[in-house]
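Q: Convert this sequence to structure tokens.
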Amino acid sequence: MRLHLIGLLCDLLWADPDNEAKDWAENDAGVSSRFGVNVVNQFLNRYNMDLICRAHQVVENGYEFFGNRQLVTIFSAPNYCGEFDNAGAMMSIDQNLMCSFTIFQSSDKQTKKQDADDIEADRRTAFFKANVNSLSRIQTAEFDKHVKWADIENSTAPKEHTLYSLYTEL
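A:
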């Protein structure tokens, strides 16, 4: 099927909401148009509706509201074309017409987060290993949940730990 660059079907696929547009405006892509909050309000009032659900536009978090939450854009493909690093989303509507979203993170974001966590853990381990001999000893008060710093000479706690040993016990 060949899609004409003007007309209802084209507009259903390509018209985009825009906070800068008061009513209708030209689309920078050269196809269809952009529309503002006034257009959303007029459409909802005319057809006695509460919400417009649309798709076919990449949004960073998988879904995005527009116009006082009267329009929602849903995009279900995470990391679209390997270029956008976006999440995907699925919208569910319950019997009371309450909307909820399931978010699908891109595998790149999950990998980057895991890599960052691993790097941070490696950095902490290296710091403690490098400084274990120069760290002051600490004592834990019997009834306190926090760690108190003490000099080695003044330490009277029955059980003493180095900061490194406490770290490795976790």
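Residues 141 and 168 are 19 Å apart (CA to CA).
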